[in-house]
Structure formats: C-alpha cells, structure tokens
C-alpha cells in the first residue's frame, strides 16, 4: 500500500522461468499488496516456479497472445479490488524497483497512467537495445505524437501503471490479442483525456529477455501506425474506429471461461 492506495502487480508471462525469480525478488513487496501472473501456455517451468515463489498464478488453457494475456491480467486484477495496477514483464528487462515511484505518482491523484520510458535519461541504447529497434522506436513515436497531437518519449514500453478507473473505463476487449494491444490501449487513454506521466527506466537487453523477431516487429510497426491513424481520424471527427467507441466491450463483458488459478499468493 502507498499513501492509502492498494497496489497490484500483474505479470503477463510466457516462458519466463529463467528470469521470473530475479524480477519477483526486485519488487518492492513492502508497497505491493498482491502479485499475480498469467501464464500463456508456457513450455518451460514458469508455472512451477511461480508456485514456489507464492505468486498467484492463472493459466490460459490455450495461447492467447501478449494482448490476450494482458486482458486476463487486468480482469483478474480488477476482481481483487486494488486501486493501482502495474504491469511488470517477468523477463527482467525493466527495473521492478521503480514500481514504488510509478505507484506514488498515481497515488497522489495527479496522474492516471505512468509509463516507464527507456528513452528518457541515459536511453535504451546504453541498455543494449538493438539499433534497428531504437530507430524504429524513434520513428514510430514521432509519427504517433504527430497524429495524436500528444507528446510522449515513447509509445512502446512494456512497463506501465494504471489507476483502477482507467482499466474499468477502457474498452480493452476491442483491442488486439497481439503486441499492438499496447499501442491501442495508449491511443484509448489519450483520446479519453487521461493524464499520463513518464519516468526514466533503465532497460536490460540480454539473451533471456523476451523480444519479438524482425518479421513480427515489422507487423507490430504497421499495427502501431494503424492505431495512431485511428486516433487521428477520431480526433478530427472523421471516423471513430471500433476500439475507440464508447460502446466498446470492457473487461467486465468478458464471456470466455478458460483461465485456471493454479496457486495462491503468500499469506492467503
């Protein structure tokens, strides 16, 4: 708990057994009230290790993709009742200790969303980000800022904190089950006028850290541009894509029953 607000950390996991322990042990558990992990049908020992660590774990009966995993993460987080929900990738690419700083910015009431930026400060290149990914990140962010009339240092970080109100109000079920989910969610956030902050976050690139290949990166890039273009059309009053419509399906509208809780968190 921080400043009277409860905190839940969610981990969308796929084959994270080599890095999960380091990620979990770096979390500020004096601030975090609950940690939950959603496993997207890993083929390694992710679920077993999560059980050893006492992490509340949910298992997909089939692989739903990165976006589909997040939908389950946020749905299960909202069921727990915490005020602040923070996504931490279990691949140890981001710095879990920054959870306290990110949660505090939301707890003050000044911001609704906080992003851990790899670009601010020393930058992602010093953390090992491949050059082609850095160039793509800067190009996409430039275009997205232009289309959305917003200013973020990057749209592609996987380290994010949200107030409960944000997750309850966004039509997240209309978003992709793939990696572009992150960008669609940010467009939804910006178009609804939620207040966004960024904190500088050191990033680590190493063999065990998850990363999509070049082909999927290209598809992701085009998906990001498509999402930003949808935000542009909505902003100009020309057309509102389905994922931005007020009548879009929210997490409470989920009708699939394919998640199994496999372990319970410490102290339950």
Q: How would you describe this structure to a colleague?
A:
With 268 residues, the chain is an alpha/beta fold. It has a single domain, classed as Spore Coat Polysaccharide Biosynthesis Protein SpsA, Chain A (Alpha-Beta Complex), CATH 3.90.550.10. Helix 2 links the parallel strand 2 and strand 3. The protein is globular and about 50 Å long.
Keywords for this entry:
268 residues; Spore Coat Polysaccharide Biosynthesis Protein SpsA, Chain A; 8 strands
- The number of E-state strands comes to 8
Q: How do the helices and strands follow one another from N- to C-terminus?
A: EHEHEHEHEHEHHEHE
Which outline best applies? globular
Spans where pLDDT lies below 50 across 5 or more residues: none
What is the overall number of helices? 8
Write the CATH homologous superfamily: Spore Coat Polysaccharide Biosynthesis Protein SpsA, Chain A
Q: How helix-rich are the residues, as a percent range?
A: 25-40%
Please state the CA-atom Rg, rounded to the nearest Å: 17 Å
Give the helices and strands, then pairings.
Blueprint (H helix, E strand, L loop, with lengths): L6 E7 L6 H6 L8 E6 L6 H8 L2 E5 L4 H16 L3 E4 L11 H9 L5 E5 L13 H18 L11 E4 H6 L11 H11 L4 E5 L13 H22 L23 E5 L5
Parallel strand pairs: 1-2, 1-4, 2-3, 5-7
Antiparallel strand pairs: 3-8, 4-6, 5-6
Short recap of the structure:
With 268 residues, the protein is α/β, with parallel strands linked by helices. The chain contains 8 helices and 8 strands, in the order E-H-E-H-E-H-E-H-E-H-E-H-H-E-H-E. The chain has helices spanning 20-25, 46-53, 65-80, 99-107, 131-148, 164-169, 181-191, 214-235; strands spanning 7-13, 34-39, 56-60, 84-87, 113-117, 160-163, 196-200, 259-263.
């Amino acid at each position: 708990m921080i400043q009277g607000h409860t905190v839940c950390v969610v981990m969308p996991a796929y084959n994270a057994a080599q890095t999960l322990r380091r990620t979990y042990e770096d979390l500020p558990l004096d601030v975090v009230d609950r940690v939950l992990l959603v496993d997207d049908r890993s083929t390694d020992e992710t679920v077993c290790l999560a059980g050893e660590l006492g992490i509340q774990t949910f298992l997909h009966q089939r692989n739903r993709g990165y976006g589909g995993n997040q939908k389950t993460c946020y749905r299960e987080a909202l069921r727990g009742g915490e005020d602040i929900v923070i996504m931490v990738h279990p691949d140890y690419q981001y710095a879990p200790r920054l959870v306290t700083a990110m949660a505090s910015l939301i707890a003050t009431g000044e911001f609704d969303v906080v992003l851990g930026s790899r670009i601010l400060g020393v930058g992602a290149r010093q953390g090992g980000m491949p050059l082609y990914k850095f160039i793509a990140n800067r190009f996409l962010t430039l275009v997205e800022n232009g289309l959305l009339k917003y200013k973020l240092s990057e749209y592609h970080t996987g380290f994010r904190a949200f107030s409960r109100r944000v997750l309850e109000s966004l039509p997240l079920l209309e978003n992709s089950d793939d990696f572009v989910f992150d960008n669609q969610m940010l467009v939804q956030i910006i178009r609804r006028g939620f207040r966004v902050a960024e904190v500088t976050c050191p990033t680590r690139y190493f063999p065990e850290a998850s990363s999509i290949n070049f082909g999927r990166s290209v598809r992701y890039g085009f998906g990001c541009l498509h999402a930003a273009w949808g935000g542009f059309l909505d902003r100009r009053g020309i057309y509102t894509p389905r994922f931005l419509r007020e009548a879009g399906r929210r997490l409470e509208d989920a009708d699939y029953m394919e998640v199994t809780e496999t372990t319970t968190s410490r102290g339950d």
